[in-house]
Design goal:
Helix content: 40-55%
Strand content: 5-15%
Order of helices and strands: HEHHEHHEHHHHH
Strand order of the largest sheet: 1-2-3
Distance between the termini: 33 Å
Shape: globular
Radius of gyration: 18 Å
Largest sheet: 3 strands, parallel
Structural class: mainly alpha
Number of helices: 10
Mean pLDDT: 94
Length: 185
């Protein structure tokens, strides 16, 4: 897990050293290599603008980012329902990431359980994400949700509720999906 710019630059330097070594040895190599990082810890977000200058892509590991963002053990059954990826603070963090990636012209994708849940994926699309890594078991449901939604409508709705102080925006997003015929089940 990369937690700051220096770690990413060190990893990139190590990779480039190995790449050049293989090149000198005459081994077959790709003409172009794209280097990026997983955003899994919140500390990276505070250096994101600078990091984006040094990478070709980023991907958000929502499972780890969510756990570290809320400082909780996502495997602890006693915390079920206490923290939600559809809380305004977490969604605002995700919105900040996609906004900065888009401004820098760096591809940003989302992986993890969040992208495979149709309601959560609807929120991600409403925030501006366009590259989701979805489990094969969830592909059909997420595809049906995407085909049934108006991106602009979800974007506008999310922008209106992201300042909420509620623990989760899940009930509001479910109601919005129901009212607008968006397939989330």
């Amino acid at each position: 897990m990369i937690s700051d710019l220096d770690e990413f630059l060190e990893a990139k330097e190590t990779f480039m050293y190995a790449y050049e070594r293989e090149k000198k040895e005459g081994k077959p190599l790709p003409k172009k290599v794209h280097l990026g990082l997983m955003i899994e810890v919140p500390s990276v977000v505070f250096q994101l603008r600078e990091i984006l200058k040094h990478c070709d892509f980023i991907s958000i590991g929502t499972n780890d980012l969510y756990q570290f963002f809320f400082a909780c053990d996502r495997g602890n059954s006693r915390l079920n329902g206490r923290y939600d990826v559809l809380s305004a603070p977490f969604l605002n963090l995700m919105k900040k990431i996609i906004k900065e990636a888009n401004e820098a012209g760096v591809l940003c994708s989302v992986c993890g359980e969040m992208a495979s849940n149709p309601l959560d994926a609807m929120a991600l699309i409403g925030l501006g994400f366009r590259n989701l890594s979805v489990s094969s078991a969830s592909y059909g449901k997420v595809k049906a949700m995407i085909r049934s939604m108006s991106v602009k409508g979800v974007e506008d709705y999310l922008n209106n509720i992201l300042s909420s102080s509620r623990r989760t925006l899940r009930p509001q997003l479910k109601a919005y999906a129901f009212d607008h015929g968006i397939e989330i089940y």
